[in-house]
Amino acid sequence: MTRSPSIEDRPIFLIGFMGAGKSTIGRLLADRLGRAFVDLDERIAGDAGATIPELFATEGEAGFRRREAALLAEVVKEGAQVVAPGGGAPCHGDNLERMLAAGVVVHLSAAVDEILTRVGEGESRPLLARARDRRAEVERLLAARVAHYRRAHLTVDTSGLRPSQVLARLLEELA
Ligand code: S3P
Predict the structure, then answer these.
(1) How far is the CA of 97 from the centre of ligand 1 (A)?
(2) pLDDT tens, position by position, for the chain (175 residues)?
(3) How far apart are CA 156 and CA 172, in angstroms?
(4) Backbone dihedral region of 160: left (phi > 0), alpha (psi from -120 to 50 degrees) or beta?
(5) Alpha-carbon distances, residue 22 vs 60, 85, 106, 109 (angstroms)
(6) What DSSP character marks residue 49?
(7) Does the CB atom of residue 52 touch ligand 1 within 6 A?
(8) Which pTM was predicted?
(9) Is 41 in the pocket of ligand 1 (CB under 6 A)?
(10) What is the number of the ligand 1 atom nearest to the C-alpha of 124?
């Protein structure tokens, strides 16, 4: 891809669906580039003193989205970090516009089967924990979100790749 602006001094945002590897790849990329890494959900949870499932339970998705948008508005101003927002962040409010304006936005994509394997059966993702049919819910959410994800400056398909391979591709794309 040739559309990405220079990454000098600008944050890099890794967006994509749950299970796409944003946090894993984000940590590797930040290490490699000698940058700080921000896992937005970890910061939201740390600031709130509650886990993401607890926040969904007590404040609802709307409350979580307000926290997410407020924190992201701060983080975009923090300079050349690597930032991994949660999978829904670029699909709500003006979060994506803020990221596109502030830095380089990379979409990590993954096939549905791979997403389902990576997210497993756990309760840590409230949007999927409640679903009777996880595959159907992943497909529904993905269909609703893909237009947002596609606005990223560049996309790296992570399907079938180990984290080290995704990192190598990403570094190539960013070069
Ligand atoms: C969400 C994804 C989660 C977390 C929250 C909502 C979403 O982050 O922000 O559960 O709307 O897709 P991950 O993408 O890191 O799982």
Answers:
(1) 19
(2) 545 455 778 999 999 999 999 999 999 999 999 999 999 999 999 999 999 999 999 999 999 999 999 999 999 999 999 999 999 999 999 999 999 999 999 999 999 999 999 998 878 899 998 888 999 999 999 999 999 999 999 999 999 999 999 999 999 999 8
(3) 10
(4) left
(5) 24, 8, 10, 10
(6) T
(7) yes
(8) 0.94
(9) yes
(10) 10
